[in-house]
Sequence to fold (342 residues):
Amino acid sequence: MPRRRRISESNIWPGFVDGLTMLLLALMFVLSIFVVAQFYLGEKLSRVEDELLSKDSELARLTARINELAEQLGLAQSEKDALNAQILALQTTLSEKEQQLAAATAAAATAAAAVAASAEELKAEKALTEAQKSELATLNAQLAALRRQLASLQEALDAAEAKDKEQEAQIENLSQRLNAALARKVQELQEVRSRFFEALREALGDRKDVKVVGDRFIFESDILFPPCSATLSEAGKLELDKLAAALLEIRSKIPAEVDWLLRVDGHADATPLGPGCRVFFDSNLDLSAQRAISVVEHLKSKGVPGRRLMATGSGSEAPLVQGSTAAALAQNRRIEFKLDAR
Fold:
């Protein structure tokens, strides 16, 4: 009995191998079918995609054609509207021409009536008496005299118009010459101002509290005056002496035809005057004007002609910088010098 069991057990393994082989063959067959089906489906899908792309291209072409036809239809509609407008314009022109023809016909009829009336007048003139003919001759002579007077007046009018045109041309020429002269004066003044600023820079040196803003030379008031005072300090006099020397140096180089003037403008900050300061000055405007006058008087004492100087005060109405800091207030307390034409 044990021997039979061993024999039967030994015979099971070949059957198992055969079954496993069959199973593997079946799996390989199924995989082969799957691969073939996958390849076939891929080819089919590629063909479908190509067809879709072709249809998309055709659809795009048809869309472009539709747009082109729509554009041509719009152009045709525009041409139709233009033709309709031309037809309306031609109809309007035809109506105007018909009106002009009617007016010309009426004018021709009026002219014919006038010719007929002239013929009647000619016949009546032939029938005039000698006295009437004499009177008519007198009137014709008076008419001729009036015509001669009218011609004389027309000649006088033409002469007056010609004279007016000549005077206008002279005025235009004078205006151009005046503008050219003013431009030369401005150029000369600019050159004088540049020389003055250069000489003043050399005299004053590189000082941060003295600056050039546009066409103005600016001194901070703290350089020239003590607080709440219009009396020049000794240091301020020294600085103004340098300015006076620079101005006198370039005075001989200024052309005689340039009527120059040095404006001295005093400015104050926006701080109200204290009680002690109000004893001497009514307002910041008064303080700034008095300081400008002090500067002018000192320059005059140094030889600068008084007719070349003008003092003005602006108070706190024209600040140089905005703000209420000590630095901003110091910059706004200033004396400005501007070389200008009178």
